[in-house]
Amino acid sequence: MQIAQVRGTVVSTQKEPRLRGLKLLLVQLVDDSGQLTDRYEVAGDGVGAGVEEWVLVSRGSAARCVDGGEGRPIDAAVVAIIDTVSVEKMRLYDKNQEERSLLPES
What are the sequence ranges of the domains in the chain? Predict the structure, then answer.
């Protein structure tokens, strides 16, 4: 799985029938220091994530198994909305704080 930030939505009126009803998000990958990389992906959203939220993205065959194993033709799926990320006793991300910073965990 990869951590990413939701940057926007992708709208498509004509799509493969198994994609109908699936919200598509544009996500930007996050590196191990909490910085946004220059890599973007489109991911199917099964959890109702919103713009600017940090999410977990599953890829490959695991992404296609989301939603009860329907076998949707996707390469990436948002599988969780992240509340916090901590690295070496430092809070890297906290959904409840407006800006990201390295703060000691409480």
Answer: 2-104
How far is 94 from 89, CA to CA, in rounded Å? 13
8 A C-beta contact, residue 82 and residue 56: yes
CATH superfamily assigned to domain 2-104: EutN/Ccml (2.40.50.220)
Element (H, E) at 69: helix 66-69
The three-state DSSP-derived secondary structure of 45-68 is ECCCCCCCCEEEEEECHHHHCHHH
pLDDT for position 65: 64
Task: Return d(Cα 50, Cα 47) in angstroms, integer.
Answer: 9
- The list of the chain residues with pLDDT below 70 reads 61-70, 98-106
